[in-house]
Prior knowledge:
Blueprint: H1 31-38, E1 44-45, E2 67-68, E3 107-112, E4 140-141, H2 147-153, E5 165-167, E6 186-189, E7 193-198, E8 211-215, E9 225-229, E10 235-236, E11 239-240, E12 245-247, H3 260-269, E13 273-274, E14 279-281, E15 294-301, E16 304-307, E17 313-316, H4 347-351, E18 354-356, E19 359-363, E20 365-370, H5 378-384, E21 399-402, E22 407-410, E23 422-426, E24 432-436, E25 438-444, E26 447-450, H6 462-477, H7 482-493, H8 501-513, E27 516-518, E28 520-522, H9 530-538, H10 541-544, H11 560-570, E29 573-575, H12 586-589, H13 613-616, H14 630-643, E30 673-675, H15 684-696, H16 702-712, H17 718-730, H18 733-736
Parallel strand pairs: 4-6, 10-15, 12-14
Antiparallel strand pairs: 1-2, 3-5, 3-7, 6-7, 8-9, 8-15, 11-12, 11-13, 16-17, 16-19, 18-19, 20-25, 21-22, 22-23, 23-24, 25-26, 27-28, 29-30
Amino acid sequence: MQLLSIGTIQLNMDGTHKLDSQGNVIPTYTNSDVAEYARVWTGFTRRATRGNIEGGNDGGNSIDPMKIRIEWRDHYPKMGLNGKYIGDGYPLCQDLPRDSFLQKGAEWKLLGKSRLPKEQELLLIKGSLSDGNHTTVKVTKLSSSSALFKELCRPIYGICTYPSIVELSDNIKCEGLECDLDNVKVVEVGTGVFYEFIHHPCIQFPFFVNGKLVSNSRSNVYERSKCVDENWAVAAAACCDENFSGIHNTCKYTGELLTFIVANSRCIEKGKSICTYKDVSWSQCGFCCNYEGYFWTDDSCNVFLIVDENGDVSIDSGAHKSGDSYSSLTFFRVQWENNQYPYVGNLCGNGVCEGVDSYCRCIVEVEETRVFSSLPTREDVLTSLHIGGINPALKKYAGEQNFGDIIVHIENSEFPYGKRTVFEVVDDFGITKFLMNMKSLVKIGSFQFRNTPTFFTAVPEVIDAQYETEAALDHYFFHTNTAPFVALRLIQRFGISNPSPAFIERVSNAFTNGYVDLNAPIGSRKYGDLASTIAAIIMDEESRSVILDSDPSYGSLREPLVKVISLMRNLGYVQTKGSFVTLQGLQDIIGQESYEMPSIFSFFLSDYAPPGDIAMASLVSPESILLPSAIGLVNGMISMIKFGLSGCYGGFINSWCSQKEIISGGDYEKSVGRLTYSATGMRIEETIDDLGTLLTSGRLSSTNRKMVIDRIRSIESNQMKLQIAQQFVISSPEFHSTGSTGK
């Protein structure tokens, strides 16, 4: 991904390399960055085949987008480029309003007749739905009078239309059962039509202090248990009686997951409480029974930090069995302050942590403090704050102060710059950010690092993996290298291999600003707008100036496939056999073929410089990497001119052609199509001028024009004369390039 979006070297906006104080180029990323980002792409697999698509060579589904197997996904935090975590800038899930499913921007997706969510987990008993009967799964049924029902129903003439995706355009009020929901997943609209709520993207901190033990066992609380944050909605309530026997009967719908506080309050309402249970009954639980996820206990706990010799860390949340090697854990990078950390080489911080084999096992403390005590600058907000705040569209704040480039949303009017205060700013890419005035630090004695955000909890869900994937893609898209990197490659594809730095900068600015002013502004004024980017390329003076045609470094070689298609289109190719054109095996003949790229880097590298004058002049010629196939290209085009599209004399299709049977041009017996260009009624000079216009955009030099005319003038056959003229023109430098040919 990095190679195809931001490149290997940091760039200025004009495409030139950034240099350090020693004059060396600055790399964009390291191998550690590559390894860290690679963990984002775990869990992807092909979807099942379906009857209306063609399978690939392996019979798999290569048409539909891949799906995520959440059990294969790496669930740990991931640090991206420049010390930025995947998840920085997102709000904490525990801060999202309880009724966010009713707030402006809430997204609902139609499930149809299925009451099972597609992107979230219900943790039902395995095999409980094998007979196809889903009636044991209870969901919340909306009242026909509720505002949410009307939004999802969208009736026309009294009949629901059930849109596939609904995004609430305004806040709406709850009604009836909706007001009691704490964690919504699926609702029923009408009879037998279901919608899934797609919760807002949010993150958790894997290091915390208010830990509670949850268990996935109904008979042994310490079996399949782990320590989780009590603020995570990851477990159900097992309400205990005086004998410490639990009953799971307080859920609002089957598979409901709650925070510890909500789960305990549900039990208190029934005169019971959460406890470290002896067992959880399978009876008296009604529609709550079909559940095999975690249950809350009141047993407090801690997670342990595991540190290796490189300072990378992992988490022991209790699921790690005693005696197992920590080498089996997944380790990830953190930002140790001053690069100081406990490891076996310093006796695990001189005894701060416990040494276990070649690792240090540490008890952590988490400190949450405010960052700014007075109004910061916009730049300070963007560089110092990493935890997202809640958009005021979803939450009502006590106050608001507008300072132009910063809007301050105040949680507590008595402490306007408390740690819950949220700053609203627009970043360098034009994206509005809401950032909380708080930092979370993980401390181990005198060692500390910034708490690492993650989209996953103890119950990872597909939707969280999707949000993490999108956040990782944003790392590439919203990167200072992206604009100049993309600008250079787009300019090259429009026929200028060596654009000037000023040209690249103008296109980069169009990409970044989202518009270009060409008498009238073009673009949406949003970062990454391709309409403004392309307009900036094709309308730039460097693209249109005829003076530059005489510059030997201007223009580019044309791609082989472009030259073949140009010949066929401009000289009137007509199919005479079969229903469509088939060009087979071009990759082996000309070095290029549709959908046959030899690697993800396409057919040529954008920075390729062939040996010789071009490389010595620090120029590039990407298409030159295919020059070894030039003979096959020219032979194939000459064959098409003389014999039509066939397999004769190096032709472009795979068909039998006895060369003893065809010895002269104009014999199209073995072809499936031919060029129909005719010069009837034109003088020789007019014919060459017309071919020069069609095949070289009118750039055929006077020297080459005269040479062609002199060579064909004495030929008697008009057909032969035309074919030889076409062969000369497609062999000219002007046909094979878009720049100066030196004459």
